[in-house]
């Protein structure tokens, strides 16, 4: 077997091994006293029960699609779909399993100080991160190895391409369900619990008297952790696959096609190594600044990745200006060298860095946007929400410009393939980025357990400090995922147009493809414009559905909690225990029910649009409209997603600004429990479904729309 | 002079005459008692002072642009710009003058019953509506007559095209300042006043003890009335001009070019007549259903317009399938007949009807979306806002589909020119639509005056009933304006691409245009994609700025009112009068200051984008990116605008659901002053800048971006 491919597979295994070894270490940590373990067990039980039901439901959809893939695309695609789906689901499940064990141990470790709490929580995050990256890389490269080394498929075999794309589809499908279902659960519990607990009853977050408090902690694990892990798995897998597909198309006639197809896998492979090394750099400095500790790890990973990237390029295409490559795309011939490709990788890293800096600015405590929301809370609920919405909209500007700059830079360096390599390099850091994210829900839970178990307030204080940083790192991950989608927009669109051209150029091209070779997707075509509009509509409709679902779930939680308080006054008095299970059960049913229709929206929309336009206008308009839809969904999707995730993070941290008292511009200090604090809780409540349900689910939604379109082409070509 | 042109001019004059005659009648109505007149005088004074300052500021920008137009495009364009700007400003000013006189008379008339109040308020709205439509038509057709009949310019003269486009630019420029400045003023006052008055002090809206109450009423006149009038003037003028420009391009080589250029003017002309007739059909039936009364007028206008449209088509191109016309656009030859053009007009009317029905559904009291927001208020502020945001996002779906259906229908019937005629026909009803809208602020003010003057509660009840309908009609107008922008998107883009092709084809084409003849604006071009992204960013950045401005103004109002309450406890006791002027002055300064930068965003963005891309990539990328920007701004703009205007209307009416007590799903009745009502006030507060500041200003923003691009082409061609 090719040594480069072996390296990629080995790196994937290494990622998983790291996860296993660290897990063994984690399990040895002190799991706290009996009360803590009892609470943790309830959370574990709820999370496992929810995920079981969620996966059962997804499996029903999955089986249908598996059969369709088998019928229309053959068994290799069906197996690819299965691999993607199972691994994406496993990544989410593993994330949950780690998280529900790390939470109670972090609560215990936090009793011994910030450094210990941070170390344990970050280690838990790193396990999930490496499981995600390692699993995705192993899945893609392993199946690729099977297809090419065992079955001897080559870049010319559509089977190979279809099987890889189907793998991406499997991952995407699980991920949208997991993101949305988990998001509805967690935010239904969080919003409902906060509204009735904090605002009405005036009891603190995670107070054991609140019947929704276990559900809230379950939600962190199934939404912020399992949902996020499945999402990033999907982003990683789809980006790698898309780059490989492009390489197969662009370099199919050259001797170096195999090398170019392996390039994304090897880049991902070495970055798993740099991510693992980076985790050892996360250490709290003397300043006790948590974000700086995390940054140390991230910067180490980034710098090492530059070196690793240079090595990979040197080993594969050759690091110099003297080995020119060329390919043709959309009628233009592009020339590049190993060196310009290396520069594209640097652009990918720069885009990542840019997104992190901007997201931290817009969501970080003490920065202008968050302070402006906190200040607006002083004048009431309304101005808080207005300012939060203003920040959320404004927060899209610089990220959009960064994406634009990235696209232009890579395009000028190496054309579309350059953009693909930049996106791959960006995603290759996923192990580290997920680690930063996944530590958030662990600390959030740790705080909850500390509160419920009645640990001393300084433990809660420690976990709160970790949690505040978690808000920013969570926003960073979401921005990063959607940013890679934006940067990769042209890559997925190019895969669509190149496929179309390929099928149209076949000597025995099916009738529907005939005469499509020169489709330009010109903005002057009304079919392109309506495709953009319909694509643009999807994130709005999807976002609206997601928000409605959370609103509905939260209202149900509020009513449930009010009912328990009413029926048993002993709960508030602390003399009797609330029925935590009822809230968990109710949310489980609600989330499962609500996730299905929105998740099917991006699966069915491309098919419906294509069919309708085909019957009105014929094949050319139908393919034009479908292609434009893929870009339309990205053009609005980026703004919807970034505004929601950044805005939500800003609202959350604006609320946190009041925990230690917020000093307004007139020098008045507003404490927890003040009117201004209550207004900030309203904003946080609104931000919750923004940042943790609707916003992040836009990313897999965009991918699904794109992948379904690619698979439709394959089906039309295959079935004809 | 051509009889068709004379007809258009005559219709414009007729519209203005109707306005003058009705104004004389309005002034004769009883202006109420001394207290009422005193209040009305304060509102008049504040509104006039604000508009004077606003226009002075705009004039400074206007003078600069006038000089630039004169230097780069010649005196005809400069004069065109001046005409558009002055008339648009005049339409806004006239709207304000009528409104501040009709308010107090409506309050008085409402004492005599709902029918009388409705009649007077609607008449006032109709005056504004006909001033807007008549003025715009007279401006465009009069200047066109001067250019063609006096100066003998023909469709081949770029001077003619540039002069008309400049007229549109003048109108757009005023309108964005007026929409945004007025919007910031009115919503700063409204939000600030409500938050401190209703929520904190617990006094009703428009209570004379609230120092912001006069400012709130001034705001209705300068924002909802003057700003709206300038906006619709702009939409009307730009749509007509764009259709004329397309006609000149498409039919330049045919003998019927003159007829095709006149067609939009004559359609607008006859629809002024049908709008006037329609106003006489507005009459309260026995059911006392206000919306039905208004619909009678609208339906009469619509049905009459079908007949009038048929007559115009019969008289000009000929109403039959036997007079085929053809033109070439983007390489495709289109055939159409008078009859298919008539069908396109019907599509325009159907789109209008569709928008009205959908908007009424999403914003009407008692319908599912508004009830869902009211229901969500029962569980608190947070769920209210979440549900409102969900409704706002969902509300974009059907309008987008309507636009898509309209585009496809017209394109299949008669190509791009068919879409242009549909958009023109849609806009031709503006007289009637503005009448429905402008009656809203009049009744809102009437309610305020009734409250402040201490009229009996049943008067307030009558004006409240009128005002609730006004919320829906206001949302309808905004949806209608943005819908026409969506439908017209391809028209403006076609004007851009056709101009580009024209300049590139000139024998002495300036260097920058050379080789541009076959620009395809393909989605495969990265320059097109970045153009879409940057265009897509504008509505978000603009919306964020608008929301921030309102938030800031509202916070200042809250502080001012709190200060007055603190410094003089006699105000709340009712023994001393608050200082109304201080709030008006403060808001005037704030609105003027805050409106400038966002308004310049769409003016400068096309120029900056073009320049940067030109230096990075050269002429082709620059023109591609600029063209794509024009569609990008529409793709996100439509969703941002519709979600904001419909969502805001829904929040407002959800709040109004509590005025007579809202019965929730469990049968519990929530009255004014209840916790649920307070939560609904928060939502309304958030919806205010959504629906009355940021949302509606997106429409002129889109137009400006497009027109600036057209003018840039002219300048580049002219200057070279």
From TrEMBL, chains A, B:
Catalytic activity annotation: diphosphate + H2O + H(+)(in) = 2 phosphate + 2 H(+)(out)
Subcellular location(s) of the protein: Cell membrane; Endomembrane system
Known EC number: 7.1.3.1
Cofactor or coenzyme needed: Mg(2+)
Ranges that cross the membrane: 6-27, 55-73, 120-140, 160-178, 257-282, 294-316, 336-358, 397-422, 480-498, 518-542, 596-616, 622-642
Annotated GO MF terms: diphosphate hydrolysis-driven proton transmembrane transporter activity; inorganic diphosphate phosphatase activity; magnesium ion binding
Enzyme class label: translocase
Principal cellular location given in the protein's record: membrane
Record's bilayer topology term: Multi-pass membrane protein
Keywords (A to Z) from UniProt: Cell membrane, Hydrogen ion transport, Ion transport, Magnesium, Membrane, Translocase, Transmembrane, Transmembrane helix, Transport
Cellular component annotations (GO), alphabetically ordered: endomembrane system; plasma membrane
Domain of life: Bacteria
InterPro entries for this protein: PPase-energised_H-pump
Residues at the site labelled Determinant of potassium independence: 474
Family: Belongs to the H(+)-translocating pyrophosphatase (TC 3.A.10) family. K(+)-insensitive subfamily.
Complex formation: Homodimer.
Function: Proton pump that utilizes the energy of pyrophosphate hydrolysis as the driving force for proton movement across the membrane. Generates a proton motive force.
Protein name, UniProt field: K(+)-insensitive pyrophosphate-energized proton pump
